[in-house]
Amino acid sequence: MKNEGHVPQYYVENSHEAIIPKELFLQAQEEIHRRSNIYTGEGKNKRIYSSKYALSAITFCGDCGDIYRRTYWNIHSRKEFVWRCVTRIEQGPEVCKNRTIKEGELYGAVMTVINKLLAGGNNMIKTLEENIHAVIGETTEYQISEINNLLEEKQKRTYQAG
C-alpha cells in the first residue's frame, strides 16, 4: 500500500552506499539540462539535441551561429552525406550564406585540428586543460556547492517539520 500520509514519512540521507558518486550524478544532470536547452542562431532558436552523430549539436555556422545538421544529397543515384546550416536549410541562402560541407571534409578538418593539438606537446594540452577548467570547472564546482547547500537547508526544514 502506498503511503499517502497515513503514517509519518522521513527523508534519510546517506543510509546506503550510492550507486554512482554524487558529483557524477550532478554532472549528468547538468548535461541533461544543457541538452534540453540548446538555443542557437541570432534569433536564439531552440534546437533538439541529437547524439546520433559525433558532431551533432556541437558544429555551428560561422555566419549565423545556428547548428549544422547532417543530411544527404542524391548525386547521380548515389547518397552523399553533407553537413548544412539549419538556418540555410529552413530559410534559404538569402538569410545564411555559409556553404554545405561534405562529411569527409568536415571529419578531416576535425582530425587535423586534433592532431595539431596533440603535436603541440604538453604546452598545448596544458593550455587546453586550463581553458576547460576556467570555463567549466569552476562553474561546476560552484554550482555543486550551491546545490549541496540548498539540499542541506531543505533537509533541515524537512526534519523540523517532521
Class based on secondary structure composition and strand pairing: alpha+beta
Distance between the termini: 21 Å
Strand content: 5-15%
Helix run count: 4
Q: Kindly provide the radius of gyration, computed on alpha-carbon positions and rounded to a whole number of angstroms.
A: 23 Å
The topology string of helices and strands comes to HEEEEHEHH
The 3D shape can be described as elongated
Q: Report the mean per-residue pLDDT as an integer.
A: 79
Question: Unreliable segments (pLDDT under 50, ≥5 consecutive)?
Answer: none
Helix content: 40-55%
Order of strands side by side in the largest beta sheet?
3-4-5
User: What's the number of extended β-strand segments?
Assistant: 5
> Major beta sheet, specifics?
3 strands, antiparallel
Report on the structure:
By secondary structure, the chain is α+β, with helices and mostly antiparallel strands. It contains four helices and five strands. The protein has a three-stranded antiparallel beta sheet with strand order 3-4-5. A hairpin with a 4-residue loop joins strand 1 (38-40) and strand 2. The two termini are 21 Å apart.
Key phrases:
162 residues; alpha+beta; three-stranded antiparallel β-sheet; two-stranded antiparallel sheet; 5 strands; 49% helix; 15% strand; elongated
Secondary-structure map:
Blueprint (H helix, E strand, L loop, with lengths): L21 H15 L1 E3 L4 E3 L20 E8 L2 E8 H6 L9 E2 H17 L1 H41 L1
Task: Give a quick precis of the structure.
The chain has helices spanning 22-36, 86-91, 103-119, 121-161; strands at 38-40, 45-47, 68-75, 78-85, 101-102.
